[in-house]
Structures are given as structure tokens and as C-alpha cells.
Amino acid sequence: MANAYADRYLGESEHLPLARAIYGEMRKYPIISPHGHVDASMILANQNFSDPVALLMAPDHYILRMLHSQGVKYDQLAKNSPEENWALLAQNWKLFRSTPSRIWFQEILATLFDVSEILAPENAAKIYSQINVKLQSAEFKPQALFKKFNIELLATTDATADSLDAHIELSKIDLGGRIIPTFRPDGVSDPERLDWKSNLADLGKRNGIEITSFANLLAALRKARAHFKDNGATATDHGVFSARTLKLEGSEVERLFAKALTGTATGSELDDFRAAILFEHALMAADDGLVMQIHPGSLRNYDAEVFAKFGPDKGFDIPVATTYTRELQPLLNAVGKHPNFKAVIFTLDESTYARELAPLAGAYPALRLGPPWWFHDSLNGLERWREAVTETAGYYNTVGFIDDTRAFASIPVRHDVARRFDSGYLAREVSRHRITENEAMELAGDLAYNLSKDFFNL
Q1: Residue 209, CA distances (Å) to 185, 200, 337 in order
Q2: Phi, psi dihedrals of residue 435, rounded to the nearest 5°
Q3: Which Pfam families match (predicted)?
């Protein structure tokens, strides 16, 4: 039984000896996490997590949405005590069978809290108590956990007007690794956001520029990007509805900005504005070298009532169909071969892997494919992705694994599960005579560590 647990997710039994060897090589490497959403101020404050729910359940939108799908109300979760919510999760744990949420959660319990049992109503109180006791110890404060997780680098996600004070203070602390910001300009790039004008005002105030024109917006963005870069940032992050880009003359973009500012822009004009500013973000990336991450295709805050009452990131961001070839053509014609431009493309639409994304990344030196994202960052999702993109893009036009999580405790288990999957996949490729054992062992270090470190300039 112990061997079976040790070999979890390594693939078919006939490939296990080699998969174990590849995994042994992968696990030597520390974690590079260039795209995530953990709050830097939480790590700086270094306070013990209040309870198991605050650590493991509340920040995980996968868990929240699954419970809601079976009738659990967000109002109920908000009113319950942590113990009541834990009991509710245990009562509904069967919902998560064969899901990645189940894998990550049980991996955390086993590897971090020495809990080998499957969560159930009859053991929920005991497991809660066992976790809670550990959470109150010094070894389970965020900074101690950061070291325990063997994280070499963790990137956060930060708004354009962020002072980065938390990052500046964290840079003075010996964490055994680095925490760096990532520039996220979504708040000032989409005029349909309710907070767009206030975000413009904050960005302008932070940089001493009154944003009354598109030119001034670009000037403020350039100053903000420089501030981020000065404090360790190597990338930007763009959560857009569409990957569409558009090259426009300055006067035309100014007209669109003015109409957006006065609230008179039509729907198509707002679409053009979003496409034009994404294009401008790419030009700025070619200037300053910050790696551009683009992840389109989510209709965010889909449920109006949940968003109004409880805010974003509660499980109601729903994927839509997306395309990339025509949408990215203006951007790639402008900077796709620029020596200073790098971009990582993610998708929620798996139909585009082989049809569009792999061919684009397989041709343009500036492009890399991000791994399966969001609903597809799972064992099955990783397999579908590898099978769809490898023949066209290879391994070296990807960037390794990205955890994309705000659930701090899930970072090491997500990377470990991905490394286990890749070990099994590479072992199978050897058995199919597509790569040699020596090549598989070299790929182990590249997929686990080198691809992300190199492409994100870390």
C-alpha cells in the first residue's frame, strides 16, 4: 500500500521504474511559480492562519462552486462558523470524487498535516482539530511555510497603482526564496468595469499624471511598469475576454478613449478600445522586456447576485469559446519577432490547442504556451494538452507548470502532481520510442524548472 501511494499519478505499471527515476530527478528542483495570486501582504504579516477553513476552503473557488452546484448557499457559508463549514464540506466530500480539487486537498492533508484518511462526516471534527493544532504553531506561519515548500520564486498579482510596499519589505527578509510582483493592468484596460474610472484616478495619482487622454494613460502605465520592474517584476498579466488586438492611429485611439470616458462609446467601440490597448501593452513589453501573459476566454462574475453580494472569485467565471490566429496577428506582425518581446498564451478553450496555439508557438520565437489553466489544470487536462501540442510546438515552446493559485498551501502539491504526471508521460514517450531515456532525464529538469526560469527572466 505504501508503494502504491508513493507511485501515485506516475502512470501505467509497465512504465513505473523509469517514471520513478524521472520523478526522482524532477523533485530535486525547487519551485518556480511565475504566475499566481497569493497576497504578498499576507506573507509579510506572517500571522498564523486562523483555522483550516481560512487556509484550505475559503480561498478555493473550485470548492465553493462545487458546493454551490449542489445547493449550498453562499449566504450559509458566510454565516457559518469555520467548524460548521468544515462539517458541511465533509458531508459533501463525495462531490469531489475524481476531481483535481479532491487530489490537491487530500495531498495537502497527507503531506502537510499527516492526515492519510479521506475526509468524511465521521472524521471531520478529528481532522479539523489535528490541522488546527498545527496551524497555531510557529512552523505553520506563512514565512516558515514558504521555506518548507522549497519555493525559489513566487510571483504575485498586483494592480497598476499598487505601491508594492509589501514587496519592498519582503525583499529585506530571508525567506529562502524571492517574492516578486506581477503587473496586472486589467483594471485600467476595460472601460466596462465598474471601477474603471477610479482605477484610472488611482493610477494617475500614484504616478503624478492626470489621465485625461490615452497618451497620458500610456505615460502613467510606463511609469508604473518601471516601478514594478525596479521592484523585481519580470512579467505582466492580462485577463482579457478576447485575445483580439488592433493597431490604430493615435487619433483614433484618443477618440475611443474620450468616448469611453464620457460613457458614449458603443459596444463595438469598446471592443476596439480593448483590442487597441492590448496591442499597446505588447509594444510596451517590447520596450521594457516584461513578459506578457495573456489569458482570454472567461466571462467573469457570471452570476449577478453572487457578484453583488460576495464579490469576484467565487466560482462564477465561466469559459467561452475563443480564437487566436486572427486576433493575435496585428500584435505578432508588430513584435512577434522582436528580440525583447516575450509572451505566454493561456486558454480555457481546449479546441484551440492543436488548431491555433501550437502552430503559433511553433513558429514565433516570442511565443510560449502556458500549461492548462483553470478548469483544465488537472491530470486529465495535462494529458490532453501534452497530446495536442507536443507534436507541433514540442516541449521547448512551453513554460513548464504554472499553479495560478491564491490557495497558498496548494502550491507545492500542485507542482508535485504536475511533476508526477510529466514523469509518467515522459516514461511513456520513451516506451513509444519517441525520446530516449537520456532525453527524458534532461527534460525532467527543463519541465520542472528551467523552462519557467529562463523564459520569465528569473
Answers
A1: 16, 10, 32
A2: -140, 165
A3: UxaC
Give the pLDDT score at 335.
98
Q: What is the per-residue pLDDT across 276-304, written as a single tens digit (0 to 9) for each?
A: 999 999 999 999 999 999 999 999 989 99
Strand residue runs (E) in 410-449: none
- Helix (H) / strand (E) containing 159: strand 158-159
pLDDT tens-digit readout, 23-71: 999 999 999 999 999 999 999 999 999 999 999 998 888 999 999 999 9
Average pLDDT of 420-434? 98
**Residue count (the chain):** 458
Comparing C-alpha atoms, which of 350, 436, 454 is closest to residue 396? 454
| Listed residues 137, 156, 179: the one ending a domain | 137
Q: What is the DSSP string of 321-378?
A: ----HHHHHHHHHHHTT-TT--EEE--S-TTHIIIIIHHHHTT-TTEEE----GGG-S
Same domain, 295 and 248: yes
Angle between helices 437-445 and 411-431 (to 10 degrees): 160
Is the pTM above the cut of 0.70?
yes
What the block records as the C-alpha cell of 233 is 517584476
Question: Do residues 291 and 151 both lie within one domain?
Answer: yes
Separation of alpha carbons 282 and 77, rounded Å: 41
> What's the chain's average pLDDT?
96
**Whole domain around residue 130: which residue ranges?**
50-137
Contact 325, 349 (CB under 8 A): no
Closest CA to 106 of 84, 82, 123, 81: 123
The CA–CA distances, whole Å, from 26 to 111, 146, 178, 421, 435 equal: 17, 19, 21, 11, 17
pLDDT digits (tens, 9 = 90+) for 382-391: 999 999 999 9
Grid cell 457570471 in the structure block, residue: 302
The per-residue pLDDT for range 215-231, each reduced to its tens digit, is 999 999 999 999 999 99
